[in-house]
Amino acid sequence: MANPKRVLNRWAVVALSVLLIIAASIYKLPRYSKEQSLEKLGYKEEEIKKIFSANVEKEVIAKDWYSLSLVEALDDEDFDRSHLGLYAVRNKVTADTISLYDELAKKKGYSEEELLKMFKELQDYALIPLFVFEKVDADAYIADNAAHTENSAAAFVLTEDWLHPYENVRTVSDPAAIDVFVSKKDELGQYVPDKMVDIPQRYGVTNLQLQSAALAAFEDLCDALASELDEGIYAVGAYTSYEDQQALYETYGLDADLYTDRPGFCDEQTGLSVSVVSSADVSVSRFVDTASYTWMKEHAHEYGFIERYPQNKKSITGEEGAPYYWRYVGTDLAEALVKSGLTFDEYYCRYLLENAE
User: Fold this and answer.
1) pLDDT at residue 11 greater than cutoff 80
2) How many folded domains does the chain comprise?
3) Short-list 284, 42, 240, CA closest to 248
């Protein structure tokens, strides 16, 4: 007769084995299913192991993401899981990429879906103008960019007017600030600057004025340029009052917006901007072809001046390129702008606007 204890032990072993098999199946079957899903997306065995090690397989499968750059990023100790989608759509994700993504989400209210669409299709030089524009339709903006394959960081032109001039206007909070920003969406009102002084005839034509700080810097700039070149520059335009701009605007009638700024939206009203020509060629339109312009591009920021309206950036600034037109913003901001490679509009709307409001 069989030993009852041996029978019970045998059944216990069988039962335990069954339980282990069931447990293993519970663990392995879902993983196997996920592995199969990842294989269908195109991932290889070693890549799948990395995805599982990072515990991101659910998100990758749910979004149908196939991205070798994502797999490579998983090895980076700085990998930020909260931006998984960004790694999936971009070949390379840096701290700057993440910062740009987060700022657009926070400041402009774009959804994850909208941002991932745009970050997948567009370079940073096409994304940064989104700080200047009101919130855009992602698909339409991508399509407009796709129609301009010639665009680059140096030249950015779009077909649609994403700027929407004079709509949802902001009132300038501190019009007397050296770094005051004025545009077709940022209004000075009837502000009249203090500390206005005449530009000496040595540095400009008669009856021109600048704020004293801007004039002192302009004189230093002119002297430095003349000491290095066989030509010099002098001012042919400067401060324009609200009243004078209003009179000019009215002369154009119904088409005025095509030719000049509305009163209160004119940068010349700050008393910080100056239009110049070269002694080598007194034409404003040909200043861009002079040695003086080349020198200004390289050195003007050292004296606090920036090229306010760069060429081929009208889609961002709302103004045609004006190589002869220079704006004083102080040396710190001028140097930061040159280093960034951004227009004043982009830099202000991304970095300074929140503090100015």
Assistant:
1) no
2) 2
3) 240
Give just the sign of the alpha carbon dihedral 95, 101, 107, 112: negative
What is Dmax (Cα atoms) for the chain?
127
Instruction: Output the domain CATH number for residue 206.
Output: 3.30.1380.10
Residues contacting residue 245 through CB under 8 Å, at least 6 positions apart: 260, 261, 262, 263, 264, 266, 268, 269
Asked whether the beta carbons of 238 and 205 are under 8 A apart, the reply is no
CA distances from 85 to 61, 257, 272 (A): 12, 42, 45
Poorest-pLDDT segment among 50-64, 164-178, 226-240, 241-255: 50-64
> Can you give the residue range of the structural domain that contains 105?
94-146
In this prediction the pTM is 0.88
Asked whether residue 68 is domain-assigned, the answer is: no
Kindly state whether residues 126 and 240 are assigned to the same domain: no
3-state secondary structure string, 26-47? HHHHHHHHHHHHHHHHCCCHHH
| pLDDT (0 to 100) of residue 10 | 63
Angle formed by the axes of helices 45-53 and 4-41, to 10°? 110
Token pair listed for 153: 């960081």
Quote the pLDDT of residue 286. Answer: 96
Asked whether 326 and 308 are in contact (CB, 8 A), the reply is yes
126-141: b (≥16 Cβ within 10 Å) or e: bbbbbbbbeebebeeb
Q: Is the pLDDT of residue 14 over 80?
A: no
Residue 136 has pLDDT above 80, yes or no: yes
Express as a percent the part of the chain with pLDDT over 90: 73
Beta partners for residue 230, in sequence order: none
Rounded Cα distance between 130 and 34, Å, is 38
Do the domain assignments include residue 114?
Answer: yes
State both tokens at 31. Answer: 């993983």
Token pair in block for residue 313:
């950036």
